[in-house]
Specification:
By secondary structure, this protein is an all-alpha fold. The protein has one domain. Helix content is 88%, strand content 0%. The protein is elongated, with a radius of gyration of 15 Å. The termini are far apart.
Length: 40
């Protein structure tokens, strides 16, 4: 059962990378960090 979840997770990560989603996630994370520090 754990292997299926691992394969599913890896497949979804690969699909996100293929679609270029990592840029959107990084941009949102940077924006949230800047707001927490008070710079944004």
């Amino acid at each position: 059962m754990r292997r299926w979840f691992l394969l599913l997770a890896l497949g979804l990560i690969a699909a996100g990378v293929w679609r270029g989603e990592q840029r959107a996630v990084l941009a949102k994370a940077a924006r949230i960090c800047m707001e927490c520090v008070g710079l944004g």
